[in-house]
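Below is how a single chain appears once it has passed through the pipeline. First comes the sequence as given, then the structure the pipeline wrote out for it. We keep one example in the README because the format questions we get most often are answered faster by looking than by reading.
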Amino acid sequence: MDIYTTDAKKTNFLKTPTFSMIVAGIVLFLGALCFVPEAGFLRTLPILVVCGALSSIAGAETLFCLVVSVVFNFSMYLFRGSHVGEALLFAVLSVLMVLCGIYVSRLVLLYRKTEKKAVKKKCILYSAYALIAIIAANAILCGNIISFAVADSGNTKYISQNYKDTVDKKFTAYSLFDGQYKTYIGFVDGDTVVGDGNDCYISRKNGKLTDGRRDFFEDGMLEAANRMAALVVSGATDAFEITESDIDFADGEILNANSDISEYHDRVGYVISFYSIVEDKEDFVKICHDSLAKFREYDYPYSEIVFCAGNASDVLFSMTVKPDTELTKLSGLAEEFEDNSVSHYGIDENTVLEYWYNK
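Resulting structure:
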């Protein structure tokens, strides 16, 4: 008699709401693990839809499933270091995916129970609409499996060809805010571990390669280049700032700890912003002339220089010069732009020419 009683208790427990919540909690937790960027290709699949359906089949309440999904996904995104806004966005998406799974599972159940053809047809249509909508939303925010596979394969091949065992590949994920698939990497430079916070990656967008390892060494080289270029310009004026610089690399060209800026001086481009007030175009041309003359005087190499300045009337000036640009022809290169929404760009030391920097 005791044996039968014990079996009955076990059977009853499997049918209790507590057991349903435990099952749903485990399923939704596993689904949340597959929804963070570190999950790789799993993130591109609507796994949370399946998790929602399984939770519903297990008998868990809808509200419980939605609350648990929000908590798990929001917490995991915050734990990995995502911004609160990003964590909230994907927590909302997770809720919609779980809700879609619950909705579709109930439509399937209704389809199996009813004998009416019209109802069966509606069940199929509504399920299809819901799945198409949520899969599309997931593809927009998390990427799609085909593009993921292409990007991951290309980035992995690039790493193996150029870095072999010096770079540790972590994972590939779609970045919604950058609109590209990034393969996150890590490497060691002396005593420094680079990429530990998922801030170093390799990607391609519109044919342009971003190599996080190369960028790391490039930043150090550009610091030296900017200091030297600043010394050159200071011979003409003290009212300036080098607001941007970069090196024109060939596709697939890499750097390492032994790379020296002296080998790349003639491939460095600068954006130099003057923050003293220029009254008119002639003033701007004169300060550009004096600065460029110093580059020629010191025979300092560069690939391109963009000079920028503004006046008290919010008139912005720009000029792009090359190594072969003649000093006597600078006036014809100066361009003028007006933007009434921009207030006194380039007037004080704490102001960066954002208008030009973002063009």
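The mean pLDDT is 86.

See the next section for the split statistics.
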